[in-house]
Write a structure and sequence with these properties.
Number of strands: 13
Structural class: alpha/beta
Strand order of the largest sheet: 5-4-1-6-11-8-12-10-9
Bound molecules: uridine 5'-triphosphate
Number of domains: 1
Length: about 290
Amino acid sequence: MIKDKVFKAVIPAAGLGTRFLPVTKASPKEMLPLVDKPLIQYVVEEAVASGIKEVIIVTGRGKRAIEDHFDISFELEENLRENGKKSILKEIRKISMLADFCYVRQSKAKGLGHAILTAKNLVGDEPFAVLLGDDIVDAEVPALRQMIRIYEKYHAPVLAIARVKKDEVKNYGIIKGEKINSRLFSVEDLVEKPDPDDAPSDLAVIGRYILVPEVFGMLEMVKPGKNGEIQLTDGLRILAKRGPIYGYLVEGKRYDAGDKLGFLKATVEFALKNPDLGREFRSYLGSLVL
Ligand code: UTP
């Protein structure tokens, strides 16, 4: 039976963050601050604003800070209370009450597909979302909510996609598909990191997915590829052969925050939009001789 509602989200956060070394040597990439909130908090807030009730975070060694961030911080809260810092106290308390959190550890970074498989028992037999902290989507309607609407209409997996420049296709999973309307595509196949001349389209899969539990069986069938990693793309290719799956061009501005330049762009734009900092930051940027 196809279940309609998507209540669970998996956030894989056990990767090594090699593109961001050395900062990621002992600190999780997901905890990098975008102005004053860690990347993973933006992603959790997007999930919650999209109707997600349970957040399953896949962690690994050196990722303790993520669990602490979404837990209550007794001493800190006491201190803020004693010092009458009510508004920041409220904000800090809100973080631990965003959703029900559970954690599962991926013992070795064996790829995104493997990280998702690690959450199999916690997901159980229902549709679920996957959100990657690398992708921050600034959107009026949260990106995941846009995708859940598509899932509820078609009852099939939905991949968030974005158009990328020809020389960028080599960094992404690229879909081969048929256009259904200006934002929606049916996905026939996917190619992981193609050469620009062999890419079937300029539509790249980005870090938001609505998946169905059948994907676990498919990921179990996938043979480890380069570096012994189990690629999610390989599982999705099997899924696309077995039934319909959709690619959806999400509305909003996406930042590749797992990459240094993408992260800097996001930082500047989020700081400009920040109600407390924006004005002064804009005038500072204007004063720079570039
Ligand atoms: P990435 O490949 O972008 O992340 O995976 P990474 O491996 O941490 O970073 P680079 O590429 O080496 O710089 C996308 C997401 O999947 C998670 C990562 O934490 C990231 O959020 N991931 C990746 C896992 O949880 N486990 C893995 O084995 C691989």
